[in-house]
């Protein structure tokens, strides 16, 4: 006979007993939907960063041939853009892996429920552990911090361009204020990118 | 949430349990991608040793330094993105293998769902 949903304590921890299958939790549904878009966005981010790196290499080659403000501005602009895009792509790929791991846990939970249901018993599933919530919060924080770092590095690129476009000699930026702003932002944006 | 939304999944195979015997392509492709990424990283590591040699030579004449510094900057500019791209390739391989694991898991669930009730009925499971 079907019983109402209730909780019991087992040696494995608190368990929810349901009369029928569990389906997916919200987190598993989100993970199921998002792992592929994250993987595609990550691959695109890394591919764009490799393109930017090649463009930066070209700018470095031109700069080696002879100094000009345009060449230096191009090189200094592409540097933060490349690293920002690179790490954003990496963050998306790591998010995709996290979502796939959550999908595996979801399959174990949902599939286990279906197996229990198939032998006509009430379905028992473990309550979602606190580590699962920690995983979700940490991953979301990491992706958000990476997006902030990317935005900051785009700002650094803009400031670096403006600082070097008026340069008159090698090693002397045209605008000291914008050069200092670029250096200040890059000083904390690069570690943030790594931490994220 | 509608049941259709909840049950749609790229990771849950729609094929029959018979597909269980087929070898999953994800494991071969995933391992190939991860190995490719690792090999690319090893090649780039050798290249960084060469670049380190150029950097140690940066104490010659002024004119020679400018040309050598340009070469170092050129190589370094594409080396970092390609190195991180190689790491990304290895991670992509991990993702493909995880995708294979979760699909395999669902095939296992389908197999157990089919066989377990019959085993219980015959008293085969205690």
Give the helix level of chain A as a range of percent. Answer: over 70%
Order of helices and strands of chain B: HHH
Query: Radius of gyration of chain B from the CA trace?
Result: 26 Å
- Determine the mean pLDDT of chain A: 86
Element order, helices and strands of chain A? Answer: EEHHEHH
Largest sheet of chain B: none
Counting DSSP E segments of at least 2 residues, the number of strands of chain A comes to 3
Total helices of chain A: the number is 4
What oligomeric state is this?
heterodimer
Number of strands of chain B: 0
Strand proportion of chain B: under 5%
Ends distance of chain B? 37 Å
| Shape descriptor of chain A | elongated
Would you write up a description of this structure?
The complex is a heterodimer of chains A (196) and B (126). Chain A has 196 residues and is mainly alpha-helical. Helices cover 74% and strands 8% of the residues of chain A. Chain A has 4 helices and 3 strands. Chain A has helices spanning 26-65, 69-118, 130-164, 176-195; strands at 6-10, 13-18, 123-126. In chain A, strand 1 and strand 2 form a beta hairpin. The radius of gyration of chain A is 25 Å and the shape is elongated. Chain B is mainly alpha-helical. Chain B has 3 helices and no strands. Chain B starts with a helix and ends in a 5-residue tail after the last helix. The chains are: A mainly alpha (196), B mainly alpha (126). At the A-B interface, helix 1 and helix 2 of A face helix 1 and helix 3 of B.
What's the gist of this structure?
Chain A has 4 helices and 3 strands; from the N terminus they run ββααβαα.
